[in-house]
Amino acid sequence: MTKKQAVFKHSSYSRTGTAHTERGKSCEDHVVTGCDPDTGVTGAVLCDGAGSCTYAREGAEAVAEAVLPTLIGMFDQFYEMPEDHAAENLLEEARAAVRRKAGELECSVQSLACTMLCAALAPDGRYLFFHVGDGLIAAWDPKSGCRILSQYLHTIALNYTTFVTIPDTEYNFGRGCGHIGAFLLTSDGPEQMLVQNGMLSERAELLLQAGCLFSEERMQRELNSITDQLQCEGMYDDASFAVVGNKHCARDLFRTMEPDLRSLLFFVPERSSRRVIDQLGSVFEILADHGGCISEKAMTRELRTHSDSRTRIKLENLLAAGIITRENGKYYF
Q1: pLDDT digits (tens, 9 = 90+) for 207-226
Q2: SS3 breakdown of the chain: % helix, strand, coil, rounded to 5?
Q3: pTM higher than 0.85 for the full model?
């Protein structure tokens, strides 16, 4: 893995909704994340098949799998295009996937209708997002905190939305450069419970921040846990999430986190001195600068702890929390 490939963490998760399980239906969401091996651009695409359509699941899968490689592979072109051209290209990629799948299944295009949420980040700080239909796209950055970037406005009814298969469909497109630390994409099941009075809930904010810190395995556990909680609170629809986080934002996030939360996530005592917090925070930056992997001897030099055994003692809480790992004489983040 090159340094460009290792700038971002990314994770996805889906679960069949309780209402679908009761009716013997499978999950009609499909979500994928990935990284371009040459440029390091990392992205996510989340699609939610229209529940009223015969091939909702197949439509969501076809669109997500087709659009992700185009999104990250043509990121530079999309970033430079006029907004309407970029939107039309992304929609045409989605519609081409639907037409191909309709041909395979010998069904109508409309029976494969789905929503589509996309987001991508480049190592140089550029980002873009694209959204058709319901669901949520949110972001976190060290300067502005957490915020909603895109959310469908239900002007007719809560269960009414638009899809990529609808001609001249409404969409939301955005781009910029700098400071985005993480993206969170959700289907409409979690969306309704992660937004309160037009603001992100604390759980949504934690998911965004965790995207910069947690391994894919740890993130899967967190997303599984939050889905359990949301279902206990009444969420019945399919639930899907995608999280993309910038490792270079982990240091600032760690340093500015409330002491009780930092203690809970990292096993760092609440009364730790500022010097200890700053030094531990620098571990994330060191690892990010080295592509997410550094030898133990190099880490010892960077931290000036003078011996590998003292380095292990210094990092024991981060290792115990599973935020970083140590294997074969190397540290990974």
Answers
A1: 999 999 998 888 999 999 99
A2: 45, 25, 30
A3: yes
Residues 6+ apart with CB under 8 A from 25: 16
**Token digits of residue 162:** 């638009």
| Closest alpha carbon to 238 in 6, 22, 7 | 22
Q: Which residues contact 168 (CB under 8 A, 6 or more apart)?
A: none
Report the alpha-carbon distance of residue 139 to residue 208 in Å, rounded: 7
Q: Where are the alpha helices (DSSP H) in the chain?
A: 18-22, 56-73, 75-80, 83-105, 188-194, 202-210, 216-232, 250-256, 259-266, 274-289, 296-303, 308-314, 316-320
Residue carrying the six token digits 């730790």: 272
Q: Which residue has the tokens 């469909």?
A: 169
d(CA 281, CA 268): 11
